[in-house]
Amino acid sequence: MTLLTYQVFKTVAEIGSFHKAADILGLTPSAISHAISSMESELGFSVVTRSKAGITLTNYGEHLLPYVNAVLNSDESLKQVIDEMNGLKTGKVKIGVFSSVCTSWLPDILKSFRELYEGIHIEVFQGTYDDVAYWIKNGVVDLGFLSVSSAKDIPIQPLYCDPLICVLPKGMKNSGNPDFVDIEEMRAHQFVTQRECTDADIQNFLKENKLRIQSNYHVVDDLSTIRLVEKGFGICLMPELVMQDIPYEVDTYPIQPAACRIIGIAAMNPDFMAPAVRSMYNYILENYKNVK
User: Fold this and answer.
1) Does 96 have pLDDT greater than 90?
2) Which ranges carry the HTH lysR-type domain (predicted)?
């Protein structure tokens, strides 16, 4: 099998369509279909399932995909090393981010990094903690921002301790200490919560403090959560970084006991990176540690 075959398989897996993969790769749909069929003949098993709904990976295909990504990433690394030896700073970096880093840090990172390395192309993938962790493990991205608690077995370099705060409807607080919200005060309120893959650090705080919350509202994104709080459907906990430039009328308070999520930059093999990836990794470590 050739690198082109691997690229065809990777693109079909990501897009779920022979026709769309053909457009992206500059090939005909029949050439895409032939490449996949030839791959399957050589392997001795099917890697995709064809249906009217589109193309999906078989179990064998799912198992192969991380290895195919590794081969393609190795080829990209080789090209970058050769360019570096020729005095060129080129290559591609694929980076995964969750929402608040995407809105707060990423625009500045992209702009300032590009000014230093014009020849390095950056591709961004936004998702939940679980999405970013999956992308890192399966070679979809080279680097990813995660919280330390969500990284689990993925090597991660801590960057910033982002305090957790309590968000209440405007003017709602009329009991307890006027300067913070403690566990006992939280127990008296209904919560608006997010899925654990989105706010793992908040879920950990609730469990550690034996706070069994009541919630009829289980949403995914930060803005939806805060909007429901604004309209009086409950309170929520949020990392402080999320609350920057929020357009909704809510009050925020420190919590007791204090807690934070630790944001870091993660990569599966930090000691073995392509030159462009290493440049981005080191740039983030040098310029965004303890930056808010």
Assistant:
1) yes
2) 1-58
